[in-house]
Amino acid sequence: MDYSDSIKIVLVGTTHPGNIGAAARAIKTMGLRHLDLVSPKEFPSDEAIYRSKAAKDILEKASTYETLLESVKECEVVIGTSARNRKVPWPVLNPKDASKEISLAVKNNSKVAIVFGREDRGLTNEELGLCNLHVHIPTNEDYTSLNLAQAVQIVTYEIRMKFLESENLKNDQEWDVELASAEQTERLIEHMDELMKEVEFYDTENPRKLLMRVRRFFKRSGIDVMETNIFRGLFSTIQKKLNK
Ligand code: SAH
After folding, report:
1. 113-139: per-residue pLDDT in tens?
2. Disulfide-capable partner of 158 in 12, 95, 104, 152 (CB 3.0 to 4.6 Å)?
3. Same domain, 58 and 149
4. Is residue 129 located within the same domain as residue 192?
5. What residue numbers bound the domain in which 211 lies?
6. Whose alpha carbon is nearest atom 18 of ligand 1?
7. Is the dihedral of CA 15, 17, 23, 24 positive or negative?
8. pLDDT at 46 over 50
9. CA end-to-end span of the chain
């Protein structure tokens, strides 16, 4: 069972270094080890080391990035966690169902990132838009927001349960082509946007929901590398004809 190399936990904009340490502890107890920090307010930090207990090694090996895209660009599956519903609804799973998708992805050799937001305001819509699916821990509707490290604990626990359970079950579906990475999907979306502008498909003064919907379509489709090449090839052919 080596799911630990394929999965990383990403903490975005963490304010309290103690939460980073507690998250590292949660990650290690559940058999994972890769931690990325996107623009943490204070890191490295003694408070983080103190709260990590015996998971100091996770902190020492953690990578730091400025933006979420830099952290997840190589990942084929990006999962965002959120304490509340957002404007454009995205596919949302609970941690247990998400763990099935994660297990399947890992078996197909995909790299998976699970992204957690800021203590005060979670992830931005733009950051959630980089994700293929969202996970919501079904908390009390009147008080939905868990402590960051506790949310990490619950999600990583379900992942561990799924992998323990499926250790001997090797009959899950396999895909014939590698899934597209986050970066490849970004390029496809950009290319489609470029083409839509060339044919004046939408009012560039007011594009927001349309682009979010196009993005949601591609992110939730589980698009593979060959499929992105087909779309991009088609877009290029249309562009060539237009520019003749
Ligand atoms: N007020 C913020 C709450 C942030 S809590 C908001 O509206 O999003 C900090 C982080 O912990 C969240 O970004 C998310 O990654 C995680 N988290 C907290 N509660 C959660 C829940 N019920 N389901 C999924 N993730 C949760």
Report:
1. 999 999 999 999 999 999 999 999 999
2. 95
3. yes
4. no
5. 182-243
6. 146
7. positive
8. yes
9. 55
